[in-house]
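Hi R.,

As promised on Friday, here is the backbone we talked about, encoded as structure tokens. Could you run it through your design pipeline when you get a chance and send me back a sequence?
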């Protein structure tokens, strides 16, 4: 009888989330009700049973998770003086796209990147493809934007950009890609044609740039919500003589006018002291509210934290 009850609950949640995907207003409405006083209840802390390296972006598709990560063999070294507008060398590393289940078991490990372009970032799922930016491990450098078919694990290069793109979303309303640069201080929007090819990819990034007027958090991972709205997840560091304090948060951002709609601090930290929004973050609608997923830590300390959120 207990198994039957659990199955019914799972079906209800699944149906609820499926409805939310068809009607994004339901998820947006819930997110817009979040406040600093919203109640976050941890329901699971699942150690990942593989070397997660330096975790980056994450989406949940059905019962599976897809997460980008960068494996660093040698960290970039700062130049004594800038060279060609760059402040450091490329370092050495590899990019990964991990697929894992809700028990933390690794199901696939897909390499991603091209030469010195090995640092994947925040990702977005549009119902068909996972969109993934990969950049050099330094600001103001180069990026490749990919799309991944999660059913076949087929990876396709879409466009190369002369800028460091750290997160990307696919705006389904006008069929555009919007990427945030290093630190999410600027946004760039590229138009897709009906076949999925970028029309204006040859334009210099500075001609497409829009300033981020919000300094609340630097986006690490972003998700397109619908109706021109994006969910940005990230953190900021605040320093004084006593040390450094890092606070994570979510921000609902309007891609039509590039202004924040709602900003919500997330006062949650992992046992290591990392803010929950340190890197990968995703959210889904449930029958009772919201369910959020975070992987704030790296390497052997990587844990999938699950929270239920109520207002």
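Update: got your reply. Pasting your designed sequence below so it's all in one thread:
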């Amino acid at each position: 009888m207990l198994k039957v009850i659990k199955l019914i609950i799972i079906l209800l949640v699944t149906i609820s989330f499926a409805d939310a995907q068809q009607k994004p207003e339901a998820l947006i409405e819930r997110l817009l009700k979040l406040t600093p006083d919203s109640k976050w209840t941890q329901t699971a802390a699942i150690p990942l049973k593989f070397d997660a390296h330096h975790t980056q972006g994450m989406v949940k598709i059905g019962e599976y998770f897809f997460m980008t990560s960068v494996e660093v063999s040698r960290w970039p070294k700062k130049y004594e003086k800038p060279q060609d507008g760059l402040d450091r060398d490329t370092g050495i590393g590899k990019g990964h796209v991990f697929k894992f289940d809700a028990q933390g078991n690794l199901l696939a490990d897909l390499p991603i990147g091209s030469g010195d372009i090995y640092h994947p970032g925040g990702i977005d799922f549009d119902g068909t493809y996972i969109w993934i930016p990969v950049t050099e491990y330094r600001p103001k450098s180069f990026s490749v934007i990919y799309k991944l078919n999660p059913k076949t694990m087929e990876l396709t290069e879409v466009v190369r950009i002369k800028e460091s793109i750290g997160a990307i979303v696919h705006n389904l309303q006008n069929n555009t890609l919007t990427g945030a640069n290093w630190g999410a201080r600027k946004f760039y929007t590229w138009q897709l044609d009906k076949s999925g090819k970028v029309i204006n990819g040859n334009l210099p990034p500075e001609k497409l740039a829009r300033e981020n007027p919000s300094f609340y958090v630097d986006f690490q991972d972003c998700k397109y919500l619908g109706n021109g709205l994006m969910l940005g997840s990230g953190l900021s560091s605040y320093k004084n003589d006593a040390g450094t304090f890092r606070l994570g948060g979510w921000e609902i951002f309007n891609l039509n006018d590039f202004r924040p709609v709602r900003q919500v601090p997330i006062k949650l930290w992992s046992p290591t002291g990392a803010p929950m929004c340190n890197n990968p973050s995703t959210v889904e609608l449930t029958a009772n509210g919201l369910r959020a997923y975070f992987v704030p830590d790296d390497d052997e300390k990587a844990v999938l934290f699950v929270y239920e959120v109520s207002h």
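One thing I noticed while checking it: The chain has three helices and 23 strands.

Thanks again,
M.
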